[in-house]
Amino acid sequence: MIKKLLFMGLGILSLNRLAYSQDYKKVHQDLIIVDGHNDVIYESILGGKDIGQRLKTGATDLPRLKEGGVDVQVFAVWSDDAKWKTGAFEHANVQIDALEKMIVANAENIALAKSVRDIDAILKAGKIAALIGVEGGNMIEGSIDNLIKLHERGAKYLTLTWNYNVPWASCAAMESGKMDAKAKGLTDHGKAIIRKMNELGMLVDLSHGGEQTFYDVITVSSKPILVSHSNAYHLCPHFRNLKDEQLEALKKNGGVIGVNFYSGFLDPEYETRLKSIYTQQFGKNADTTLSTWKMYDKLPADARYEVDAPMSKLLDHIDYLVGKVGIEHVAVGSDFDGIESAPQGLEDVSKFPLLTKGLLERGYNKADIAKIMGQNFLRILKENEG
User: Would you call 1 exposed, middle or buried from its count of C-beta atoms within 10 A (0-12, 13-18, 19+)?
Assistant: First the structure.
């Protein structure tokens, strides 16, 4: 009976945490794990890499997803606005084509889900449920008809912007700079797009969205919103993270924020540390004007590990978010294959059980971990469909 009570999470002493930690693999296996954002389509699939096999590159493939216990994976469909000023809708469809081709080739292990009902059936069959998330409103090219077509192909959410404004919504990267206040937020057409998404049962994703866009969506949307891969601004003041006031609005809306694994959104010292270690490695040949991604890629494995944020930083963000919005409003959106650096110990999708271990060691019980690791995302998915 005592062991059962401990397992239910009623104790918070270090002995309890040790017991949880030792059994973390069993706990993790019992959960439905949902990762709300992964860029493996662009990183690997479009380039012809077979993610049905274990790869030596990237952070994601089906064997490692299985090893990590990932049950539901959202595959991001993304295009750089600067490169796709025209043809972005076609590019989105090409990516979905590539994803579908991969799924057909690995039909014994993965299937595309277009609804919560589909997810249930796929998981019962012992397969990974693949969802589609479109990252960037540029890919609908301002057309509600294109939005509908992407939804029909399986897109479960639309991230309204990437790092550039679209004609109907402003992004965090631009709003955080010198931008006319009157140009911030949603236009009337943008508001019509949000209403159509609500009607379709398609999640509105506000990662990358500007603050004014965020509040405009909160006002317009009749459904809970998603912030698929962002963190807490209070702990890491980056424009991609949410401020406390935004977190309060998200809570009132009933929405969910998925924690992002990127070291640069977790640890405000990340870039400084990267440049310092890069300079130590290359001395006079160190070009610190390179992007963080390029500098990181040039480092040897042991130096990369030193640069990576400690796992504790990710857990700190989860603790902070749970404290601000409650356990029902926090999820996971790793951003694997869209980032150069993840926390120490969470280098690829196979390592998800170690996040469960870390949460157990922080004193979270199994029921709460189940919410963070999957149930909260599935809840708002169902509420939007309903």
Answer: exposed
